Amino acid sequence: MSERNILLLIPSAFARKGSFVLILLLYSVATASGQDAPPCGQSLNPSPYRGVPTYSNGPDQWKTTSCDPYKKLPPYGTYGSQFQCTEYVKRFYSSALGVETASSWTGDAVDYFASANAALPLQGANNKMLLPLANGGFNPPLPNDILVFNDPNNNEGHVAIVTEVAATEVTFSEQNWSVTGTSSLTLSTPCTSTGCTFTISNRLSYPKDSPKIPVVFSVAGWMREPSPAIPITIDFEQFTGPSTFTGIQPSLTVGNATFYGGQILTNETNSIADESSVYATASPYCPGCLPAISIAFAQPVSNFSLFVINGNTVTVTYTVSDDQGGFQTKTLSSTVLAGAGTVSLTDTDIHSVAITSGPAPGGCCGWDFAIDNVTFTPVPIP
Hints:
The chain is mainly β. The chain contains one helix and 24 strands. The protein has one helix at 85-95; strands at 6-11, 20-25, 29-30, 131-134, 146-150, 158-165, 169-173, 182-188, 191-192, 195-196, 199-200, 203-205, 215-224, 232-234, 252-254, 257-260, 263-266, 277-282, 292-310, 316-322, 327-332, 340-345, 350-357, 368-378. β6 and β7 (169-173) form a beta hairpin.
């Protein structure tokens, strides 16, 4: 894939009538026309992600047709039109993840997100029993996710497999677009007091029918296998942090849950109620940390509970609330008396939870608390 800057003449709203301004578009342009692509059926990556190759569509690269319509070249699969983007995604989910139904998925790429888990599949695309997560939501993309692109007219779209997620970039593997079989886009993660959102940038490519006019593709979202409906406990023991606060950390994703507002501490200083790894927040000791710890769930949950540890030297009341309107409060004695306890929520279909500290008596001090042993059961998708 080569990159180019695109110059466009656009009517200026700030100049006199009939004038134009010259705009430099800084999108990545995938010049994936047939003459740039390797020969039909050639492997695009010598070290394919999780051992599942991507193949060139040769002279039909970026088109909806296959350069091998009769499947005379490997992989000889039953995953749809040879060397199309959907063929690779279905083959990857079947071969790398063992999803037995992947070979029977139907629909164009543009249908994938809407038919991930829809009661009435769009345009004849079948229910893929996957979890759809919208671009710009509270749940980050993860490796193995199916990345879904929409074109401006919602004609065909595109799908790819996420291979790596960095702080500011998402890398993915694909067929029938990049001539290298891999590409990447910018990931932005603005955060507020309610958590962080995750947005993958748009992508600019040449359309098959008019190669001189760039077309913007937007990311609808990403899809993944849902978690099984069995109880899950997150105890943070896979993480090691300092014993004292150093400052707020980026959002932390553990399986189905994304935490924000604090940092990981291990054997927290002056905490005798829990000397393992915990997720904690405090003021003024933790720069940038928030008065509430937020948890966002990629898949709705039920049977929620967690262990709250009071880090303050006075008795404090804590509130644990969910997005369904449910909440519980718990008053905990001071940290020197090992003030801690379990709080449970009875709601089902919970998408997010917030843990907040009440004011210290007499306004003596800021907030200081931690959580551990976060337990929940993912709700089965329909």
